Amino acid sequence: MVTNCVDMKEKTIDLNCDLGESFGIYQLGMDDDVMPHITSANIACGWHAGDPVVMNKTVQSAVANTINCGAHPGYPDLLGFGRRAMNVNNEELKHYLIYQIGALQAFCHVHDTKLCHVKPHGSLYHKAVENEATAVAVAEAISQIDKDLIYVALAGEKGRMMARIGKEFGLNVAFEAFPDRAYTAEGSLAPRSIKGAVITDPDEVIARALQIARDGCIDDIEGNRIELTVHTLCVHGDNPHAVQMVKKIRSVLKENDITVRPFQL
Amino acid sequence: MVTNCVDMKEKTIDLNCDLGESFGIYQLGMDDDVMPHITSANIACGWHAGDPVVMNKTVQSAVANTINCGAHPGYPDLLGFGRRAMNVNNEELKHYLIYQIGALQAFCHVHDTKLCHVKPHGSLYHKAVENEATAVAVAEAISQIDKDLIYVALAGEKGRMMARIGKEFGLNVAFEAFPDRAYTAEGSLAPRSIKGAVITDPDEVIARALQIARDGCIDDIEGNRIELTVHTLCVHGDNPHAVQMVKKIRSVLKENDITVRPFQL
Amino acid sequence: MVTNCVDMKEKTIDLNCDLGESFGIYQLGMDDDVMPHITSANIACGWHAGDPVVMNKTVQSAVANTINCGAHPGYPDLLGFGRRAMNVNNEELKHYLIYQIGALQAFCHVHDTKLCHVKPHGSLYHKAVENEATAVAVAEAISQIDKDLIYVALAGEKGRMMARIGKEFGLNVAFEAFPDRAYTAEGSLAPRSIKGAVITDPDEVIARALQIARDGCIDDIEGNRIELTVHTLCVHGDNPHAVQMVKKIRSVLKENDITVRPFQL
Amino acid sequence: MVTNCVDMKEKTIDLNCDLGESFGIYQLGMDDDVMPHITSANIACGWHAGDPVVMNKTVQSAVANTINCGAHPGYPDLLGFGRRAMNVNNEELKHYLIYQIGALQAFCHVHDTKLCHVKPHGSLYHKAVENEATAVAVAEAISQIDKDLIYVALAGEKGRMMARIGKEFGLNVAFEAFPDRAYTAEGSLAPRSIKGAVITDPDEVIARALQIARDGCIDDIEGNRIELTVHTLCVHGDNPHAVQMVKKIRSVLKENDITVRPFQL
User: Fold this and answer.
1) pLDDT value at position A217?
2) Nearest alpha carbon to residue B260 among B39, B31, B63, B68
């Protein structure tokens, strides 16, 4: 007999997507197409991707679609899209984040909305999961800017330290899961080098999104069920297929009486 | 008989200086030495100079010295220090400025102070003086961020358009003069290519600073007196001589009963 | 009665295209698709577009397609794609070009081919057409690197100065025309702001390409025939339609006994 | 009784220094002052430091001082001066190096000299010492550009792998030592975090330079003598004291019948 891991009164979930990653003449992502189907936008801040024109347009679109604006700051590495580990001193890192978040905040102010959350990008996200001093730098930057900002952290066992640090700095922490990524028994994302780490079958991704949102758990890469308390699912808008999948995820969640709405902690 | 151009009850003047222009390992300017002698800091925002670590340190020092923090945004041209004309589309320019000012605002917030003013840097300043659409882009960016921000504009006949635009956008405008630069009969800065455009004799610079602050006028390059209503004098902190000159200017102003304090409009 | 402007024994023409404009994760252009149909590649050098990985791949593909490799250096303005006027000091500009051309030369060396030509990109191209000191800086940079490099200059009356300067520096100059751009009576490209400046009807573009290559002349925007001696036609590979057009141009030229091959001066 | 570790007929040594590290308006180092006293210049290539104008000037000065020109390529991290570890894919890294070395080669060509050597900069140097795949990427880049280029590698036990890889790619390898750095018993540089890792007493640095050059050995941090076969000593030109020390090192070497000249392998 299979039982749900959790049983809440009203089930809600947020769908977040990395947006505003174009730069100058370079277009990336299908922001306009995916926006109507998500509830939170993680907006690049000009260091690993994005530029002021793109940031302005993305905030404007997010407001038009009544979705949450969040900052998605990254390493100073446009050439590597912020996906490469960089050994940045944590005190310097903190200031890199204040800079990027502050810049995005200004665009939110211009469009009469409030910056809601911060999610570190790419390699910085991974380091904040692994390394306590990095997690501190990120949390400290966020809390110094605005203690009401929500800190998006990896859900599950693996993200526990990152989340704890966020709470120690007085931040609300939203747990995030990745329905298209395999999880290890320890609750961390299986490394991309492992076969099956990225799940490409749309039906499976949709089923996993539902399992996480409805049941608060996920089958790990060895087939065992692990608990996964989650406020937001990370989805993608890179291509037409990705956009279709987000649309499908949203409708399946709805059919299962799960309210898709911006996270409120 | 020589008469003063103006006669105010209490004479006050602000001394502003471009600061925070170091970048990474590269040091520029003697910020710590000049800070005690000025009243307003124009802080580079990371595009033509400055970086988040420098911005943080500069705001922190400004607060410690109880001087005004202002943003000094520029073109995206670190290699040219923002001194080269760039034909940036004005709509894009506006967003470049929102980005830079917003980033600095975050550091001001972190250090519990308020961003007071904005002064465009280098080639952007010159273009805002010359070109109405550029002046509009600058004023619009500032006013969209915060209508209480003071817009620093060139004093005199030449700066009239820039100032008018600022006021049309509801901004308070502070007029700025350059005691070490020669003025043409039309009240614009004599181009650097002309002999005598930059005044290097310390005594003359000090005398001109006093003339501007006390009398509200200046002798133009042909020796005629022109009116120059001014709220702030631009001084430099690039080298020990420059710092000494600022110190001297301040003491001479004081001896002449002119209060040196941050502009309040 | 219509007569040809020129009548050569064997008619030949080169087809050049701007390539290698991707950057990091950002893809631009359909390089692989257009390469088989052109004879000269103008390869971005990492300042306005391109990066070392892209440069390497593009040179490798050019060699595989047995087409000419050329450098396409631009202003230091990735954010503006080198399309914005920048007031770069000409002595500095010369060194910017030596740097970029030298970097591309290294990739040519690695792939056992020789850099054949240099064509300034975007706003730098326009400035070299308009401004003699800029044209000198460009020609001097090229000639200091290798006097056998071909300097690609605008064909027609308007490009005369640029070409003359190239020759004064001992360079071979290849004249370039744009079949999809309208020409003024003076033989310059009609500004994009004018209606009809960019020709979008594929049949018209193809007809103009043929007129230029076969007859050495073109109908200007007022309908008058002007002479246009040309070694190379600039074509585009930005999208599937553009690639199709290049393919069509090439076959129409062939049907008219015009040999499409890399320029040899 | 103390005996020399080695005994050669004519003792020679090269003195190398990192130069050309200014950028735009930002000045770094006292290149003009140190040049007359060294024999090899490691010239920054615009990624972690340096720009085309600086590169041109530095090559020109090196030629005027008849010293060797070498490339000093680094990570794409101007903000961190190439001193931060960056997890760059090795295939990409190879192309980053080809780009930078090629650019510098062009300036050497313009000034009628030949690029002599390549020494990776900062964090890249450390990674090439530690990590075989990185050492391969560096050596492959150099050998693809010119097999006559000398690869500068860390002397001693610790640098053995880096040197072996260079030789496997057919390169001549020059061993480098640091007279102002303490060595561990294993022959690697003592980490800067350890007390005494950087030797600041001028007399001691000079004595160590002599010991290395004359005796082919050095006292490690525990006081034991270790062998150190060396072709070049790394010296500094950051400040007046550093320049004085280089001058002193050179004269002491001369007094001890050691010829200071560019390495020839």
Assistant:
1) 94
2) B39
Give the angle subtended at the CA of B25 by the CAs of A52 and D77, to the nearest 5°. 55
* Strand locations in chain B (E): 12-19, 40-44, 68-72, 115-118, 150-154, 172-177, 217-219, 225-227, 232-235, 259-260
Query: Does residue C151 surpass a pLDDT of 70?
Result: yes
CA atoms within 13 A on the CB side of C42: 26
**How big is the CA angle at A216 (ends A210 and A222), to the nearest 5 degrees?**
85
Beta bridge partners of A235: A17
CA–CA min distance B253, chain D (Å)? 32
Residues of A with CB under 8 A from a CB of C: 23-28, 49, 51, 78-81
| Domain extent listing, chain B | 12-260
Please judge whether D25 and B28 are an interchain contact, meaning their C-beta atoms are less than 8 angstroms apart. yes
pLDDT band at B2 (very low <50, low <70, confident <90, very high): very low
Segments of B81-231 assigned E as strands: 115-118, 150-154, 172-177, 217-219, 225-227
CATH of domain B12-260: 3.20.20.370
Mutate to test the interface with C, among D59, D90, D91, D99 (most CBs of C within 10 A): D99
Residue D188 is predicted with a pLDDT of 85
Structure tokens belonging to residue A137 = 């730098």
How far is Cα C164 from Cα C156, in angstroms, rounded to an integer?
12
| pTM to 2 decimal places | 0.95
Residue C158, classed as helix, strand or coil, is helix
Q: Do B98 and A56 touch (CB under 8 A)?
A: yes
pLDDT mean over C32-60? 98
Q: How far apart are the C-alpha atoms of C166 and C140, rounded to whole Å? A: 8
Q: What are phi and psi of C202, to 5 degrees?
A: -55, -40
Tell the burial category of D228 from Cβ atoms under 10 Å away from its Cβ (0-12, 13-18, 19+): buried
Chain length of chain B: 265
Model confidence at D2, in pLDDT bands (50, 70, 90)? very low
**pLDDT number for residue A4:** 45
Task: For B229-255, give the DSSP string.
Answer: --SEEEE--SSHHHHHHHHHHHHHHHH
**Cβ neighbours of D79 in A, within 8 Å:** 76
Distance CA C106, CA D106 (A): 9
SS (H, E, C) chain D: CCCCCCCCCCCEEEEEEEECCCECCECCCCHHHHHHHCCEEEEECCCCCCCHHHHHHHHHHHHHCCCEEEEECCCCCCCCCCCCCECCCHHHHHHHHHHHHHHHHHHHHHCCCCEEEECCCHHHHHHHHHCHHHHHHHHHHHHHHCCCCEEEEECCHHHHHHHHHHHHCCCEEEEEECCCECECCCCCECCCCCCCCECCCHHHHHHHHHHHHHHCEEECCCCCEEECCCCEEEECCCCHHHHHHHHHHHHHHHHCCCEECCCCC
Q: Are A161 and A126 spatial neighbours (Cβ–Cβ below 8 Å)? A: no
The per-residue pLDDT of chain B, averaged, comes to: 94
Average pLDDT over residues A34-62: 98
CA atoms within 13 Å, Cβ hemisphere of D142 = 32
Answer yes or no: are the C-beta atoms of C18 and C246 closer than 8 Å: no
Say which residues have a Cβ less than 8 Å from residue C191's Cβ, sequence separation at least 6: C197
Answer for the pair D174, D152: CB distance below 8 angstroms, yes or no. Answer: yes
* Cα C52 from Cα D94, distance rounded (Å): 9
Element (H, E) at C105: helix C90-110
Model confidence at A186, in pLDDT bands (50, 70, 90)? confident
In this predicted structure, the answer to whether residue D9 has a pLDDT above a threshold of 80 is: no
Tally of residues, chain A = 265
Q: Which chain C residues are Cβ-neighbours of B88 within 8 angstroms?
A: 80, 84
CA angle C129, C135, C138 (to 5 degrees): 125
